[in-house]
What does this fold into?
Amino acid sequence: MTQLAISHLAFLTPGNYPDDAPWQGLEETLQLFETGERLGYNGAWVRQRHLEHGVSSASTFLAAASQRTKTIELGTAVIQVGYESPFRLAEDLSTVDVLSRGRLNVGLSAGQPAHAELLGAEVFNENWRNEDFSYNRVKRLIDNLSGRYLGDQESFIESPGNRQRPRLQPYASGLTHRLWYGGGSLRSVKWAGENNLNLLIGNLTSGENTDDYYTAQLRQLEVYRAALATHHHANANPTPRIARGRVIVPFDSADAVTRRRYTDFAASRHARTLAPQGDRRTLFSPDLVGSADQILEQLHKDPLLHELSELRIELPYEFNIEEYQQILTDFIELIAPEIGWKKAASELNQTAA
It folds into this structure.
């Protein structure tokens, strides 16, 4: 069996909650971040979704998470920039990065955002279809995070006890190197590489000239890396990262009822993996549900993981906190050591203490 070399391990959680108990769900998600840090995960990520029972403002949630954790990377995947002001979002993200002492990772996506027919006029106005939902909106966000000054050299902001040249505050040095793009097509990964962004690839992608999920994403990796190699920027990220996401649910320590629940969950989603779905020919990778040995067998067969060193476990929607904790514990104890991952020395010292 070919060995994997996963050195960075993270998880992504939906942060879901009951309609009548949002505090409970958000608090449990914060507790899950604490659990992930205690177990030794390198990163904890949350989805940002609008109009759903989940995290609608990732920056607000991660600001809270920055005060409940100390070392784990904090991430959001992905923020649909179409609904955001590139300047105001940059202010929020910079504030979170400063509060977390440089632990923030930001996943982004361009294009017309979800639920636009419902939310377009609420966010903008009745002419919302004329808004720029292109990659330029992401570029404006990056520019605002760059630390550049506004106006000319004679432009100053006067405030009580302070006179300074104007730029977005607080300035979070290094945050532009921790921006990620959620790539799912050849066009999007090429743009991400050309703009020196880190790349997120997940359990779904566009089927372009192939019906095979793995073939599609291997081609995307090739295009992304080629774009990185041919586009150089001043102050560019010297080590762009690529993270692979998969739905992984080990059930070794779960009881019989929970195992059946996990198995039924995977079975309900299996049909979508058999052929491209919809007009955009979306391809899905199979969910990995089973014992640690069964999951390890499938992970070693994943050709993408042999190309990468970062893996992110995508936790399913609508599971409860105990189930999420069980999944994360089983994975890091039974599976992670077998795919090359090792707990950081600092984490080992804390465990021993």
About this structure: The radius of gyration is 21 Å. Residues 147 and 173 are 8 Å apart (CA to CA). The longest helix spans residues 22-39. The mean pLDDT is 93.
